[in-house]
Specification:
Length: about 210
């Protein structure tokens, strides 16, 4: 079993919700768990908050989600994934191209993040600045992963099961080489979710700055 670090000593923490999204738009929760904040979150923050190389600087706000999946002959089998360090970045995702069964979806966030305050944190902020938490929303879309593998309930490689996710800053959505990983989590077995013909897979992702 993999237990992700909540903060990694970063002063930032996150939690995800995994959902099944029906064709009628109804979201049904599968489960939830913490995430791991990657070291590269500091690069994102520095670029977005204060580093100004020129008037055309890229926008490093969090704007994309990676959903990792494996195509399985028997989708009832839980997917085993190695523990990962906080320095994991896009090289890992590039290397999924050599896998015979694993790939990932790179999808835009479907809504602007919702803003709120961490429970119990209200007294630490001025009344006019009651904001320290963002909730991001995304859901699976498309039938093919970045490396060309089927994302399907009945593809050539079997049934696709989502087993991990990453929250990503994509300053140029047309250029994946510029992506930076903010946070990642590997789903517990109970939260791994298969692609079904009649539904998509949704994710809510809370990030609190404390």
């Amino acid at each position: 079993m993999i237990i992700d670090n909540v903060t990694g000593g970063s002063g930032v923490k996150g939690h995800i919700g995994v959902w099944r999204v029906a064709d009628d738009g109804m979201w049904s929760k599968v489960g939830g768990q913490p995430n791991q904040i990657q070291y590269s979150w500091g690069y994102i923050a520095a670029k977005q908050i204060g580093y100004r190389p020129g008037p055309d600087r890229p926008n490093y706000h969090i704007s994309a989600l990676y959903l990792e999946f494996e195509n399985q002959v028997d989708p009832s089998v839980a997917i085993s994934v190695a523990a990962f360090d906080r320095d994991l970045g896009i090289t890992y995702y590039n290397n999924l191209g050599s896998s015979t069964s694993r790939d990932f979806l790179r999808i835009p966030l479907i809504l602007e993040p919702a803003g709120s305050v961490s429970t119990g944190f209200e007294g630490n902020l001025p009344t006019e600045q009651q904001l320290n938490k963002l909730t991001f929303f995304a859901q699976s879309v498309g039938t093919t992963g970045v490396h060309g593998k089927d994302f399907s309930h009945s593809g050539a490689g079997g049934t696709s099961k989502v087993y991990a996710a990453a929250l990503v800053a994509a300053p140029d959505f047309n250029d994946r080489t510029k992506d930076v990983i903010f946070a990642r989590t590997v789903f517990l077995a109970a939260n791994q979710v298969t692609k079904e013909a009649s539904s998509q897979i949704g994710l809510t992702w809370d990030i609190a700055f404390e």
